[in-house]
Amino acid sequence: MTAPSDARLRDIFVDMLIARTQAGRLWNLQRQGQVGTVAPIDGHEATIVGAAHALDPEHDWVVPQYREPLGLRRYGPEILERFMLYNLGHPAGGHIPEPIRVLPNQIALATQIPHAVGIAWGMTLRDEPGVALAFFGDGSSSEGDFYEAGNLAGVLGAPVIMLCVNNQWAISTPVHLQTAADSFAAKAAAFGIPGVLVDGNDASAVYDAVDEARSRALAGRGPTLIEATLYRLGAHTTADDPTRYVPAEDLEAARRDDPLLRLRGYLEDRGLWDDGAQEATEVEALELLDRALDRARAEPLAPGSLLDHCYATDTPRLARQRADLTGGSER
Amino acid sequence: MSGTASDGPGGTSDLTMVQAINETLHAEMERDERVVLLGQDVARNGGVFRATEGLVEKFGDRRVVDMPISEAVIAGATVGLAIAGLVPVAEIQFLGFSYQAMHQLAGQVARLRYRTRSRFEPAITIRAPFGGGVRTPELHSDSLEGQFANIPGLKIAMPATADDAKGLLAASIREPDPVLFLEPLRGYRGIRGPVPDGEHVVPLGVARAARRGHDVVVIAWSYQVELACRAADTLRGEGLSVGVLDLRTLVPLDVEAITEAVCHCGRAVVVQESPETSGFASEIVATIVDECFWSLEAPVVRVSGYDVPYPVGRLEDLYVPDEARIIAAIRRVLDSA
After folding, report:
1. Residues B75-91: b if buried by 16+ CB within 10 A, e if exposed
2. CB contact under 8 A, B73 and A121
3. Which domains are delineated in chain B?
4. Fewer CB atoms near the end CB (10 Å): N or C, chain A?
5. Which residue range forms the structural domain that includes residue A59?
6. A40 part of a folded domain
7. Contact A315 B205 (CB under 8 A)
8. CA-based diameter of chain B, in Å?
9. B206 shares contact with chain A (CB less than 8 Å)
10. pLDDT at A7
11. What stretch of H or E contains A15?
């Protein structure tokens, strides 16, 4: 058991608050038509940020679904910069530069879990220390890839952490329509690996669970399935209206257990946080986002980008199509 | 492997297709320690067709890995292995079962370079046997190359000779983009021939003239090249000069070779094992129309399977194109005004 230090918890809270604040701004930008569809992070901050802080960015890979980027500041400012490009529909949004060990967003649910197992397996084949952590939701646990990847991870003893972010909703489908199992963590039994159930609103508990899974993996003792339970405080995405299906009283109760309120209270009790710090961090969060967005808007985009990076070098047919597209003006 | 005869260094050995594939896997694993093999029954059993025989003994069970029966994770894990800097060569035991991996092959493997703007190099080879004529159970024989050719990002190699099985497999494993390497079931032991010893790489995207002729050209790939050559040899006895163009790879497509052969003859037949509608032969015909329309002396004819699912054993010979159907198609093209 390794509880994070108070200094670490303060760092975690800063990242959580920045993520929440930036998510609010992104929501408004989407409503103004300035960015594309956004999946708000609200309610998921303790789990995503807590997990990221338990990892070693130099060695450990993060394999996200799509709700995580704002919570991955620990992996560097490039994550936000690339996420802004992504939100603007710029192809460079999918290119997270070397040597950052984060994959771009994955829209097809659970397909990233086999990738994480492959990365973890590959690291052991290359005798590299490190783990791969895959984020996915409660809904993704119904996909075949979840079972196939978990099964292979167990068989290989791969250093992978499967982190199921159970936010109670798969768009409008509640957990009881997703599974009849007692928990998602219980599914670990089918893989022959440990399953851990953790309070996803408690950043300290998530940090601890990921830290322990990481230690196990690095010691050659294989994968862990962690289920972090929390409540989706926002909509599924900007294209969703949760008032159609989320009971108002449930949401109200979940808001009283907001992970930010909880950690802020802890830090304030210890004299590590106050209104001044809160306000300064919120201002910084918006400045960071605005700067990243400005840079993303200034990123050039040539028509030939449409055809770039399909193959290492254009096939003859693609070369002909490139000439048609660009009128021979490029490359 | 047994049954081989070499005529010495710099020479050739007489190999079956499966022997050529096995030899190439040995050589490529020797050459590049990043190459890892994964698939069902590939290690202890040496593959159900023995394509991977002897590899686990030589390279160990870290590099030659028996996988759970999970096509999706066999395909999906290659993405992670490639990201980790390895060169995975995965086997899907029969191409028909790639339907169970399609979301990983089409949705992930093929798009990895594009969606990450080359941050990651998808040096991935997916080997799979396919094709009819050996009385397999359901879904073991389907020719799905046309479906895969509609997935940007993949390359598709389909050798017709033992020589090319070696040369194209070596090229596929060394290729920085994902290659679907399709091996004809009937060819594993039914096709044999001289294979160059030592280093032998056939570049992807260069077609091969299997027969030269000037009356008509038959365009084919994989085992259908063998049948087209038999048809050409039969008709030669009647004084007809029938060319056979072996495409070798569907992606990249050697448009130049197709253009040259069809413009030279003015008449063409395209042969495929897959159903007629939306098969890759349709792409070839469209290419011929684009490139050779004014040189054509007759409509181009396709010889295909029928527009039904691949049938059970007693109907198989009716479904798969054979020498007689190819000859009939050639006569039709030659009889056209």
Report:
1. bbbbbbbbbbbbbbbbb
2. no
3. 13-196 (3.40.50.970), 208-335 (3.40.50.920)
4. N
5. 6-300
6. yes
7. yes
8. 62
9. no
10. 97
11. helix A6-31
State ipTM. Answer: 0.97
Residue burial B141-180, b: 16+ Cβ < 10 Å; e: rest? bbbbbbbbbebebbbbbbbbbbbbbbbbbbbbbbbbbbbb
Q: What is the DSSP letter of A102?
A: B
**How far apart are alpha carbons B9 and B20 in whole angstroms?**
16
Domain with residue A104: its CATH number is 3.40.50.970
Q: Do B73 and A315 touch (CB under 8 A)?
A: no
Indicate whether B235 pLDDT > 70. Answer: yes
* Residues of B assigned a catalytic role: 140
Q: What is the mean pLDDT of residues B1-23?
A: 80
Instruction: Convert the pLDDT of each residue in A222-253 to its tens digit.
Output: 999 999 999 999 999 999 999 999 999 999 99
Q: Which of A95, A115, A155 sits opposite B79 (nearest CB)?
A: A115
Q: Do A296 and A198 belong to one domain?
A: yes
Q: Does residue A1 belong to any structural domain of this protein?
A: no
Helix (H) or strand (E) holding A286: helix A275-298
Instruction: Measure in Å the smallest separation between the Cα of B262 and chain A Cα atoms.
Output: 18
Copy the structure tokens of residue A292: 């990243």
Which residues 6+ apart lie within 8 Å of B256 measured at CB?
Answer: A316
Task: Sort strands B208-211 and B242-246 into parallel, antiparallel or unpaired.
Answer: antiparallel
Q: What is the DSSP string of A158-175?
A: --EEEEEEE-SEETTEEG
Do A19 and A156 have their domain in common? yes
B81 touches chain A (CB under 8 A): yes
Q: Residues A79, A69: contact at Cβ < 8 Å?
A: yes
